[in-house]
Write a structure and sequence with these properties.
The chain contains ten helices and twelve strands. It is α/β, with parallel strands linked by helices and about 250 residues long. Helix 2 links the parallel strand 2 and strand 3.
């Protein structure tokens, strides 16, 4: 079994059963649990004709690699992320002013999962990540995302610079985050078709990525901390964009 094709945790399993049941090949539920939340998953699986196996907590612990599974694991078919070929259709369906998040080399799966969760909350149309030297859509990412990985799955691209150029040609305004040289976040115009770019933990955006940005913004910092965790920064920037888009 490929761990990348596993979803574990009550919220994540419920999300994939509700939104993408055709991708689920098998559901494992903890044999010692019979509470309402687990029974809800059993009912969802049965309604969609998905096989359910009851397993011991020890068995589920082994399948999840020691991560918290809350008594529920779903096995998926197919790959662990969308390819860049899906990006055109995603943007077409997003309306005239899509909001896109680009993560340039985020390697911590917990950060990627948290970014996906925020992206889902604010209505991001797509989350774009490079295929190499970055976290993929693993079981840990799905667990942290609490179902958001099934609604806003990362789109993996081979060449991020080429993708940013293509997004710009489609009329999207590309805004990168740069604490050292950016315009204050609240003064930037984040309305309209928008791409928000955040760099890797510590290193920030790569040079080629930065060169494709139309504007760089900085999150004002009043304390001694020089920068925010990338998932926290994503939340701050994305919610400022939403505030501007819904103002009035």
């Amino acid at each position: 079994m490929n761990a990348a094709n596993l979803v574990y945790g009550i919220h994540a399993v419920r999300a994939v059963l509700s939104k993408h049941p055709k991708r689920v090949t098998l559901v494992y539920l903890q044999s010692e649990r019979g509470d309402q939340r687990v029974e809800e998953l059993l009912k969802l699986a049965q309604e969609n004709g998905i096989k359910v196996e009851r397993r011991s907590v020890k068995d589920l612990d082994q399948r999840s690699g020691g991560e918290r599974h809350q008594g529920a694991i779903a096995e998926l078919s197919g790959g662990n992320a969308l390819g860049e070929g899906a990006l055109d259709d995603v943007l077409d369906a997003a309306g005239p002013a899509p909001l896109v998040l680009v993560l340039d080399g985020v390697q911590d799966p917990h950060n990627l999962g948290a970014c996906l969760r925020t992206a889902d909350a604010v209505g991001v149309a797509a989350v774009i990540v490079p295929r190499d030297r970055a976290a993929g859509l693993s079981a840990t990412v799905r667990k942290v995302a609490s179902g958001a990985a099934e609604t806003v799955p990362p789109i993996q691209v081979v060449n991020l610079s080429r993708t940013l150029k293509w997004l710009k040609e489609r009329g999207l305004w590309i805004v990168g985050t740069d604490d050292a040289a950016g315009e204050p976040l609240h003064k930037a115009n984040l309305t309209g078709p928008l791409v928000v770019v955040l760099g890797a933990e510590g290193a920030g955006m790569r040079r080629l990525t930065r060169e494709h940005c139309d504007l760089s913004v900085a999150i004002p910092m009043a304390g001694v901390v020089e920068s925010l965790n990338v998932s926290v920064a994503a939340g701050v920037v994305l919610y400022e964009a939403v505030r501007q888009r819904t103002k009035g």
